[in-house]
Amino acid sequence: MTIQRLLRTATLVAVGMVGCASVVSAEPLKAEVIHWWTSAGETRALKQFANAFNAAGGEWLDNAVAGGLAARQATISRIVAGDPPAAAQFNTSRDFEELIERGLLRSLELEAQAGNWRDVIPESLVRLSSRDGKFYALPVNIHGRNWVWYNTQVLEEAGATVPTGWGDDMFEALDKVKASGKLPLVIGGNPGYETLFFHSVMLGVGGVDLWMNAYGERNKGALTGPAMREVFETYGRLRAYVDEGSPGRPWNIAINLVITGKAAFAPVGDWAKGEFAAAGMTAGKEYGCFMPGGIMAIGGDVFIFPVLDDTEQEKAQDLLIQTIADKKALREFNRYKGSVPARVDVDMGGTDICAEAAMAALQKKEMRAPRSSMLLPADTDGEIRDLISEYWNDPSMTVDEAVERHAEILLDG
Amino acid sequence: MLMRNLAAKIALTPMMIIVAVVYVGCILWTFRTSFTSSRVLPTYDFVGWDQYAALFRSTRWIVSLENMFIFGAAYILGCLIVGYLMAIFIDQRVRGENTLRTIYLYPHAMSFIVTGLIWQWMLNPTLGLQDFVRNLGWESFSFNWIVDRDLAIFTVAIAGIWHGSGFVMALLLAGLRGIDAEIWKVSKIDGIPAWRMYIQVILPILLPMVLTCVFLLSAQAVKSFDIVVAMTNGGPGIATEVPAKYVMDYLFERSNIGRATAAATVMLVMVISIAAPLLYLRSFRKERQSGAGK
What we know:
The complex is a heterodimer. Chain A is built from 20 helices and 13 strands. Chain A has helices spanning 2-19, 40-55, 68-80, 97-101, 109-114, 117-120, 123-129, 152-158, 168-179, 191-216, 220-224, 226-237, 251-259, 273-278, 311-325, 327-337, 353-363, 372-375, 378-393, 399-412; strands spanning 30-35, 59-64, 87-91, 130-131, 134-135, 137-144, 148-151, 183-185, 263-267, 287-290, 296-304, 340-341, 368-370. In chain A, strands 1, 2, 3, 6, 11, 12 and 13 form a 7-stranded mixed β-sheet that branches. In chain A, strands 8-9-7-10 form a 4-stranded mixed β-sheet. In chain A, helix 8 packs across helix 9 (168-179), helix 12 crosses helix 20 and helix 19 (378-393) runs antiparallel to helix 20. Chain B is an all-alpha fold. Chain B has a single domain (59-293), classed as MetI-like fold. Chain B has helices at residues 6-33, 50-57, 59-90, 97-105, 112-123, 129-135, 152-177, 181-190, 194-205, 207-223, 226-231, 243-253, 257-293. The interface between A and B is large, with 38 and 36 residues.
């Protein structure tokens, strides 16, 4: 028992070291926020929250940590060491689940009821953000992960029509582009993007039903059934359309090949929009977008608010929650972020056609699917990434083997 | 006896404490944690060998282990051969020796991240060497190891050899310079060709230095992480995954501390089981040598 306590104290001290670098001040209404929005566009988006908070009488202490992994580690270390920030960014994943279980996060139930969150936030995000009927995280934005981007001119020159998903129309278009000498399909050549692409195929071929049965319910019938086989078969068939330089290619280089007219299609999330915009291209003109089957795989970011033991700091935290949950602040934030607000009652009209399509899909419950990391623990999700990447890069792996191992990961994990 | 070197002992005490707490303490903590179900935060329950069983069920871990041995063998052998050849070359009293030595040793001053990135660009079939040669007119030229699942691990080894052989050269050159000139004179009289001298006479004399090189290089091979991350990030697929990357991924990205510490423990056990016989052999040789000297 004493050894255990000693060990625990030692751990606390060890992880605490990391957090010592920045010190939270005890002065009134100062609130420190840890996040990893460091690019130009992201910083501009976050400024909308910071300005609103400062205008409401607070003082926003910005603690940007480059890289999601490092930022989450900093947050967890700070909380465990007893020196938590007022708020911290997390992805819509199950990474903060344990923090809730250990009672380290503040319940947002009062604010949720006052702001009617349950009615306006998509159900999958509600489920992710709450535990035992209480909200513990505030979703702020939604990114669509399963977009397919295309270069209009490349398709026209090849005489191909725009497909709607990963069906026969897609293969027809890919063949025509291939015949015209351009690259038919470019992807990010690493496990993360190969899996994002796989999930795009899975939603396009199998729909929300297969998705939820496989990743939500982990139903054995769905995981080994004909629909799942078809997903792996389609995905495997698509190998023939990527070029030799694909492994290791970063996603932005892949998008750049589409921008410069060297490639036709690229499956990447809606963060690709920034690249098209920077190249001076307009959605619906020089480039186009579609979500296979009209279904949107959603992911995004949430803020969590650790339990604080100082009443002054708590007051600042109250104000911070009000500010971030405000509809106007959410709209401004998402306008610059390129995402859509995590509530369906914010008007995003007048933006580009891709954002409008996203907002339309978001309104319909049967058209939105939570990203896999919202449904699965981080290690199970990671094992799926390993398998999909292995399958994609190894044409000798049979569909049967892939389906079986995929099911095994989900049924054992 | 106690008072002898008291000042030195006092000066060393903080270091000893740090070694005990940080090194030994962390190893013990890692070992203990590998038997728990810890995920994001460490817990102190006991789940027996569960984490180890899951570890060895994972294809990625098995591939990682295989890769560590393939990479380690190719890397160490390659560094030794290239390094020894470079040392022999410089030992021929060539002109501009200092410049050449600096050039050979320079890659070692670079981090593995930089090394990995440079080689990734050079070996990328659509950007690097292959594309360059094809543009020169040799259309059928093919060098796409880095995207080939079976050969990708060797490209990592090539980058490692480029990085490490200068270091081996520096050590072996020092050894070559220490060799008695009489030995060479004798070989000239006996008419033994130089290459046979280098392999059959000089190499055995340099053996302690070669062993030192093997030791230092195998430490690099076991902890190789950054070069893989920069060059292939474990791909294509899982073809170039290594154990250290597995530990890092599970420790942070996949928030499974239990599994990560189990993998780290297996790595430690492997290092000890390889290092212990070698160390024993070395001390055994020393003992025999000093025994023969009496």
